[in-house]
């Protein structure tokens, strides 16, 4: 039976540590989404993450750290990577950096790559990692390819009795996964847009961020969230919708009505005020709510592509992609 323990209970931290110490996964709240966390140095613990999620093992995991010192024990920081960590950690930024030869992060977590994706989360997750003393591998706490969870109930609905413990920290503040950057010397490459807009990163560093293309990747997946089909509800997803068909669920933006939405099964609005931060926080929850109506298709209105809109549109594009 899965336990759901409030983050405020005095025994929750020790209960989570007990599960981690015996090699099990724990669903944890972070500022981005809920993560399915386990010991990043243990192949058995990492295997439980892949098995619980049904995740392909060529898809690497992010290793979460408590502080810079823990990160430096596993990956090599360039001056630019140090500047990024100082500016944005703790927070929703993941850096893909060269693994140290003496790193204890297991190759299962890095999918056998010579690099590792590392992040320092905020709040309870960071405190738990500090108490555990080792990095935690933590992809989103949902079945692979499905909509990411932003509440404890989302985790329970998707993973059911597959895990022992869910820590309930309420709705996630950001609501989108972290931005992932590959740092190569003095160059930056965006591998996944996320909770920190590219424009903010460029302003902080003075360096343009390159975009990843299929040609630049070859055939490999070098960071989480790069599969073409991902974040997918059961219903099909139709993007940039200007009208609604009978029987569809509608997700609109900025309070603008879609033609024919009166015949929709449900009408939701990511942000009636047109606030991209609010839209990001609501995105996954609204995809789940629209899916729960039983609609066979979800019509999503256009969302601006600047700022957090880049990450929102990235998730919507992958949700709408042909299913693998």
TrEMBL record:
Domain YrdC-like positions: 10-196
Top-level EC class: transferase
Catalysed transformations (reactions): L-threonine + hydrogencarbonate + ATP = L-threonylcarbamoyladenylate + diphosphate + H2O
Signal sequence extent: none
One family name in Pfam for this protein: Sua5_C
Binding-site positions, L-threonine: 32, 64, 119, 138, 178
Listed SUPFAM superfamilies: YrdC/RibB
BP-aspect Gene Ontology terms: regulation of translational fidelity; tRNA processing
UniProt key word DNA damage: no
Localization in the cell: Cytoplasm
Entry GO CC: cytoplasm
Gene3D superfamilies: DHBP synthase, Threonylcarbamoyl-AMP synthase, C-terminal domain
Protein name: Threonylcarbamoyl-AMP synthase
Upper taxonomic lineage: Bacteria, Pseudomonadati, Pseudomonadota, Alphaproteobacteria, Hyphomicrobiales
């Amino acid at each position: 039976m899965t336990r759901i323990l409030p983050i405020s209970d005095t025994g929750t931290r020790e209960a989570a540590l007990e599960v981690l110490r015996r090699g099990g996964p724990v669903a944890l709240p972070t500022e981005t989404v809920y993560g399915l966390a386990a010991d990043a140095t243990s192949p058995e613990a990492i295997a439980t993450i892949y098995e619980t999620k049904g995740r392909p093992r060529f898809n690497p995991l992010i290793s979460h750290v408590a502080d810079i010192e823990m990160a430096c024990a596993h990956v090599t920081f360039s001056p630019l990577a140090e500047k990024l960590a100082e500016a944005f950690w703790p927070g929703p930024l993941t850096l893909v950096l060269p693994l140290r030869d003496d790193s204890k992060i297991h190759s299962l977590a890095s999918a056998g790559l010579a690099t590792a994706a590392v992040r320092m989360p905020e709040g309870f997750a960071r405190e738990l990692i500090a108490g555990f003393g080792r990095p935690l591998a933590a992809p989103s706490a949902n079945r692979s390819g499905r909509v990411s969870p932003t509440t404890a109930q989302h985790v329970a609905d998707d993973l059911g009795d597959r895990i022992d413990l869910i820590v309930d920290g309420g709705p996630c503040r950001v609501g989108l996964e972290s931005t992932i950057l590959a740092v190569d010397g003095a160059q930056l490459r965006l591998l996944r847009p996320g909770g920190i807009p590219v424009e903010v990163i460029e302003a902080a560093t003075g360096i343009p961020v390159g975009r990843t293309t299929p040609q630049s990747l070859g055939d490999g997946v070098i960071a989480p969230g790069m599969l073409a089909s991902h974040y997918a509800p059961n219903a099909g997803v139709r993007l940039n919708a200007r009208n609604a068909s009978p029987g569809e669920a509608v997700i609109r933006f900025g309070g603008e009505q879609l033609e024919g939405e009166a015949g929709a099964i449900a009408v939701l609005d990511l942000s009636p005020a047109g606030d991209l931060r609010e839209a990001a926080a609501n995105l996954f929850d609204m995809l789940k709510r629209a899916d729960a109506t039983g609609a066979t298709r979800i019509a999503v209105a256009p969302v601006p592509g600047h700022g957090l809109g880049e990450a929102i549109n990235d998730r919507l594009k992958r949700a709408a992609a042909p299913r693998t």
